[in-house]
Write a structure and sequence with these properties.
This protein is an alpha/beta fold and 251 residues long. It is built from 9 helices and 13 strands. A hairpin with a 3-residue loop joins strand 2 and strand 3.
Length: 251
């Protein structure tokens, strides 16, 4: 076997490996387009913006992968990871034991919880006040599961496909309250709902959001390292405060 032939074969194999690596580093990332302010569509540019969008962009840069971003309803995200149709999901996804059975999670990147949103002047102040009322929440979310587990009179709980739908229902008086992720309802109350709706009661069921990956993903360690370095050098703090204001101590 000639030396020239061996060099040609080696070069060919190197190109094949390089091509496979390049392909593996272009990942499919999915998000839910309606979880404000974590992810939302910029009406002027048509691009997805928000806290999560800036987090995943920085994580990808530090972890060493490029990605194609897709959007879908929240309730389809975990199944898409299960089937391998997407590689990574970031959409304010609460880390739960049930979900950890079927997908991998990064280390937590956001501490959250659930909160009640009502119209201004409502006399509802806490969870017990929601018994027997018309309550909007999001389909496939942990807030829906929480209501089903903690309300005895839950016939009035209505799951909506998007957060904007349930907020519109609240404003139009089709429902009495919304029960959903605290940062999302808080952002709505400070923006489009200002003077019309308000958050009430304590934070229920402390939660942590994680970046979800296909079970067995080779990218978990790289994603965790990227998140850790973002927190160490202040990048995470800058992104957080851009979308939520001053960051609480200990985060």
């Amino acid at each position: 076997m000639s030396t020239k032939w061996l060099k040609t074969l080696g070069a060919s194999l190197a190109l094949t490996v390089a091509a496979g690596t390049a392909s593996a580093e272009n990942l499919k990332v999915v998000t839910d387009p309606s979880f404000v302010p974590f992810e939302m569509m910029d009406q002027e540019t048509g691009e997805m913006i928000g806290f999560d969008m800036e987090i995943i962009a920085e994580v990808a840069k530090r972890a060493g992968f490029e990605y194609d971003l897709q959007t879908m309803d929240f309730n389809g995200i975990i199944p898409a990871l299960q089937t391998g149709n997407v590689d990574i999901a970031i959409a304010g996804i609460t880390i739960t034991e049930e979900r950890e059975q079927i997908v991998d999670f990064s280390d937590p990147y956001y501490d959250s919880g659930l909160r009640i949103l009502v119209r201004e002047g409502s006399d509802m102040k806490e969870l017990s006040d929601l018994e027997g009322k018309k309550i909007g929440t999001k389909i496939g979310s942990t807030s829906y599961d929480f209501l089903m587990a903690n309300l005895e009179a839950d016939d009035g709980v209505t799951p909506y496909p998007g957060s904007s739908d349930m907020y519109m229902a609240l404003m139009s008086q089709a429902i009495d309250a919304v029960f959903y992720d605290a940062p999302n309802v808080g952002y709505f109350a400070r923006t489009k709902g200002e003077g019309k709706v308000t958050t009430v009661g304590p934070l229920y069921e402390g939660q942590q959001y994680g970046i979800a990956l296909v079970e067995g993903s080779e990218w978990v360690d790289e994603v965790n390292a990227a998140l850790a370095s973002m927190k160490e050098d202040g990048t995470y703090k800058s992104i957080y405060e851009k979308w939520f204001g001053p960051m609480p101590e200990g985060m």
